[in-house]
Design goal:
alpha/beta; 22% helix; globular; 8-stranded mixed sheet; 5 helices
């Protein structure tokens, strides 16, 4: 099991759940480690990860990733993400990656796959994906947490991403500077 291997390699971080689906797959929600932290001690324990795919939604079917949703703080993290995981992508993988430092939606053509890149300042990737696909709570009624990911993946098959198709280098040339707004009591 692919996700089990990721767990053993400490590539799953802040796990929300890992659960079997009714079609024999495995569903995961949490963070997905992109760049691991340095080794901290002689036992091989590591410092916290350097970078993560936040709010990751991963569906594994037949030892391949068939659904990948998440949030990147910086589009430049797409390159190490692809280096680490592209060998595990299914041929028909569905993906929706939210990115903080892009202004417009785009379709990234990389590693033989298409990735829908959508700007997102704040929000939760799962909720944003549901909204982007115009799904309702009733679409998930009575489903287990894992089967909800199957429904999301099935709905994404007919999703047509907005934006121009770009290579990674071209997409990186379109990043913007992020302006953080102050929050909390004034």
């Amino acid at each position: 099991m692919l996700l089990k291997n990721y767990e053993e390699q400490s590539l799953l971080f802040n796990t929300n759940f890992t659960e079997s689906t009714s079609n024999g797959g495995t569903a995961y929600r949490g963070e997905l480690v992109i760049q691991e932290g340095d080794v901290a001690d002689a036992q091989g324990r590591r410092k916290p990860p350097i970078s993560l795919l936040f709010g990751a939604v991963v569906l594994e079917e037949n030892e391949k990733i068939s659904l990948l949703v998440g949030l990147l703080n910086d589009l430049a993290l797409m390159e190490p993400l692809l280096e680490k995981y592209s060998g595990d992508f299914a041929d028909e993988m569905q993906s929706m990656i939210f990115v903080r430092n892009i202004a417009d939606p785009m379709v990234l053509e990389a590693a033989g796959k298409s990735f829908s890149l959508i700007p997102l300042d704040e929000g939760i990737p799962w909720n944003e994906a549901i909204e982007e696909l115009a799904l309702e709570k009733s679409d998930f009624k009575g489903q287990s947490a894992g089967d909800k990911l199957v429904t999301l993946r099935d709905e994404m098959k007919s999703f047509r991403a907005k934006g121009e198709k770009l290579s990674l280098d071209a997409a990186l040339s379109k990043t913007i500077e992020i302006k953080k707004s102050a929050r909390g009591p004034v």
